[in-house]
Each structure stands twice: as structure tokens, then as C-alpha cells.
Amino acid sequence: MLGKAHYNGGKMENLESLLNFIIKQLVETEDKVNITYEVLDSDVTFKVSVAKGEMGKIIGKNGLTANAIRGVMQAAGVKDKLNVSVEFLD
What we know:
Elements: H1 11-26, E1 34-40, E2 43-49, H2 55-59, H3 64-78, E3 83-88
Parallel strand pairs: 2-3
Antiparallel strand pairs: 1-2
Helix pairs in contact: 1-3
């Protein structure tokens, strides 16, 4: 399922809000942040796109920022028994 699916009583919206907050703290053009997600059973894949030229801020040096974001999202999903992954679209 793609988009604004309700899973576990709105848990998806909580995860999406968390990711949205994190990403918007890192970019200058917050209105260009776009987050979608796909749900397949307990696997959730978030897809993040930002304004052209700002993806470097999200990825970080050697991918450290991106990996930290992925770690936070994975940890947030554990409570609800969700396997969360994050893809950054250029």
C-alpha cells in the first residue's frame, strides 16, 4: 500500500511525523520535503525527497546523517513490531 495508510491505529502517521520533523530540521526549503511510504505486512519503506541541492545535507559526510536517520526510524518502529527502512530519492 502506498501513501497515507492507517496501520495499527495511526502508528504510520506518528512515524511519518517523526521523519518529517527530522528532515525539516536539516533543510532550508521545508516546503519541498516530500515523504511517502509503502507498507507490506510489517515492512514499512519511507521514501524521502527534498529540494534539488539539499540531499547532501540529508545524506551527510560518508552517509552518516542518513544512517543515523535510518537508525532512529528503525528504533521507532520496534515498539510496534515494524521493520522500518528509509530511502532517500535524488
